[in-house]
Amino acid sequence: EMLNGFSTDPLTLTQWVLVQQQKEAPHARGNLSILLNAICVACKFVDSAVRRAGLSDLLGLAGTGNIQGEDQKKLDIVANEVFINVLRRSGQCSVLVSEEIDDEIIIEGGGEYSVVFDPLDGSSNIDCGVSIGTIYGIYKKEKTEAPSVSNVLKRGRELVGAGYCLYGSSCSMVLSVGKQPAHFTLDPSLGEFVLTSAHMRVPEAGRIYSINEGNSSLWADAISRYVQECKSPSNGKLPMSLRYVGSMVADVHRTLLYGGIFMYPADRKATQGKLRLLYEAC
Ligand code: AHG
Ligand code: MN
Ligand code: MN
Ligand code: MN
What we know:
Layout: E1 2-3, E2 6-7, H1 13-24, H2 31-52, E3 61-65, E4 71-73, H3 74-90, E5 93-98, E6 105-106, E7 113-121, E8 132-140, E9 161-167, E10 171-176, E11 182-187, E12 192-197, E13 208-210, H4 221-231, E14 241-242, H5 248-258, E15 261-262, H6 277-281
Helix pairs in contact: 1-2, 2-3
Domain Fructose-1-6-bisphosphatase class I N-terminal: 12-197
Pathway: Carbohydrate biosynthesis; Calvin cycle
EC number: 3.1.3.11
């Protein structure tokens, strides 16, 4: 409900989480709610660092690399540290797995959840102010399970929650705890994520395809034929438009809102595809 351009019925992410908990799990102890709030706080800190990066000497390389053989940017490291500290302090996690850390982090006496995350996705876009994001997934371990990396080496459908935060022209948080994802937008004047859409659903028809076409000479035939079909549909329809940000979070967010297709297929250079199942794809 809007009055003079002002929402008179706002629902913040924190409230939404508490309401969901009461509705779906009235007898739960609220540990997942504490964890989701921690993730929300970490994303707000990363958003603030991203917005200030050019002013606070936070652009450029950190001078270190990660286990996937990538050079780390300063913001990759800042986002990673913020996530680890906030998650550790939440008291709800016993295993943390980050794109920027070689090994899993085990927290003795931590909680029943494990979080896998890509603290800053799309790092090639940091220095030119193009959208970047954070991706996270939450697994729960059995009480009897010892905290170990096997707590997260599970099928994606075993996630108890997952989402991403997009640091774009506005800051968007998208979160699913098993049902349709909900979309929140950060209101910078409140410092709160406010509910924008309770049920995000990808439109059935979309006119956009999204792929790094610079790799086309490395693609398998089927991919080349499919992309050709996007450009000149054999059924006489109009061509689709190409949009490719090169930050998965941004490309996926646009696809969820506008429809179409986003792809990073295996090719002769990236024989398994480039996106990482653990902290990006699942
Ligand atoms: P990251 O910055 O976390 O290492 O991941 C970047 C990923 C993903 O965001 C994006 O879809 C893809 O790499 C882009 O790769 P290309 O530059 O090869 O297109
Ligand atoms: Mn990376
Ligand atoms: Mn990534
Ligand atoms: Mn990353």
